[in-house]
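### Sample
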Amino acid sequence: MLPLLLYYFAAFFKLFKLNLLLLLVTSSTSERRGSRAELRRSSVYSTMDLVPQLEHYANSLPRPMTRNRPSLETLRKTFEVSGIRCMLNIWGVILFLRLSWITSQAGIVLTCVIILMSVTVTSVTALSISAIATNGRVASGGAYFMLSRTLGPEIGGPIGVVFCFANALACALHTVGFSEVVRDLMREFNVVMIDSVNDVRIVGVITVTILLLIALAGMAWESSTQMFFFLVLLISFANYLVGTVIPPNTEKQSIGIFGYRGDIFVENLTPSWRGPKGSFFQVFAIFFPAATGILSGVNICGDLKDPNNAIPKGTLAAIFWTTLSDLVIAVTTGVCVVRDASGNKSDILTGNSTDGCVGLACNLGWNFTDCIHSQACPYGLANNHKLQLSGYPYLITAGVFAATLSSALGFLVSAPKIFQRLCKDEIYPFIIFFAKGYGKNNEPIRAYILCYLIAVIFILVAELNTIAALNSNFFLCSYGLINFSCFHASITNAPGWRPSFHYYSKWTALFGAVISMVLMFLFTWWAALITFCIIVFLFGYVNYYNKPKINWGSSVQAGTYNMALSYSVSLMGVEDHVKNFRPQCLVLSGPPNQRPALVDFVGSFTKHVSLMICGDIILVGDRTTRPHDATDSLVKWMNKRKVRSFYTPLSAETLRAGAKNLLQVRSLFEMLYLSVILSVCLSICCCQQDATKTLSLSAANPIIYSCTSFSGFIMKT
């Protein structure tokens, strides 16, 4: 019995040791994974320090490793933060206050074309921004941060200014839309403060002031308010769909609502242009702001926990659902509502006679001829801009309030955060004042006030269609440059361009950039010219007048290197010709600031169009006393003196050995120096062309080296 117990005890002890060993291995593995996760954390915007992940090379492994699928909770949170914010900004004033009017003007077919063309531009832009967002860590600053780190401060700075202005203008657009609805409600109750225009201005200024106070209260209040608006919007959409299937009563028929009918659908298929805005591209320009909320999640990327994951998924999901809702509303409105209606119940036809009756409503038992002839019909698709189909009318009004206020609040929050990031980069010194943040979340209160003032200025315009056309122009400019930055980073094959989002193409990005620029001029050509002039002015200021001392490793630098390398290699296959001769000089100047006369003399005939290299021979004994920043200071000295030259320091045992080494390295591809210029302390004007003797090197007689391959010039000192 005892041996049996000992046997079981030994087996149990072995099993315990095995489990303990397995536990230790698992713990060490998790620690290694944790350490690898720590290593993969990038710096502010560095893609070079990312440790390669084994999962990225899964296809090259014998047994591919697969990532775990994200949980439903993770997907829900991702869409909740980024996707809902994008949807709220896309579902704005145009959806509720202009889409039915656009359907009456362009017809169902062209309205769907307008929606799909807008979605094409925004979808391509979303793919480009997803690629840029997943190319490294994304800090606060949204689209500006990505563009500036991709294209450099010279181009990113002007786009940051334009994009901030576009967001402030969008805030004014949605606030004016909200004010128009409030004014119409006041008219229903016979309440007028001054007149129709000034009432919009007063309500708009009060509204944007309240939104500013909500934004200043912090992101928690703003997020809670946005979630409330989102729920109201969903209820409003459900109410609209219910209204399309409820049989219309006499009151609804008097305002042009007849339910789903094939004859109304056929009538509204084709366009019916009316008024000064009656053209395809003018209507397109008015609709396009309805698709411009796709960067809302990007603009608050500094507040997202995982922007690399949230931005692509949330943005693309928001585009899909908002496009579907736009198409459904455009088609159902065109199927159920006629273009003109009087709203007068007495216009119902009592008999079967339709003599003298004009319009499709005559076949439906209504005579709206009088208001059609006088062009004074207050109802119908062409006249009442607000959505009319609903189960309960005031829920549509609540949806308008939610859509306009949520979009206005979203843009009012986005613009200051982008502008704060731009000011912190110190690209434009005169706006650094707005970079200061307050509180634990670094809230840009000064930038909030500036964007608030810009929004108030455009609210005082009180014309929704005019503001919408301007807003379309600025957003198209931003979208075009986002797509161009993605294309440029891809085409230059920069080592730092390694996005984890692979569902994009450089050619679709180029298409998005080109179509955005074309649409800018087709919408409002004068506004497009003004926008380009502003960008050119800001670009010139940064590039030529006040170049910032920052280096973000932009794709412009990669493109410059590629071009220089390509052109230099191409010169190797081209023979020299006397017509293209340029003096190419090696100047044995030593430190250039010690022989300024020699440097200026050579610079006077190279004239910024020829190759000039200043060679500096550093003796071994002088290395320790040479400052570490000597090369940078000498290059700055030549730049300040406006001398276009390379500076090449060379270490050598003796002056003779250093000079020979410089002369033997004769070519940079085909750009070989044919003239050697130096300064000696001799009263000599020139050296003989066939001289083969090399003078002794000393302090009094530095160097003269000449052979048949070089023409030597000696400057008297």
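The chain is about 60% helix and 5% strand. This sample (Solute carrier family 12 member 10, tandem duplicate 1) is used throughout the tutorial notebook.
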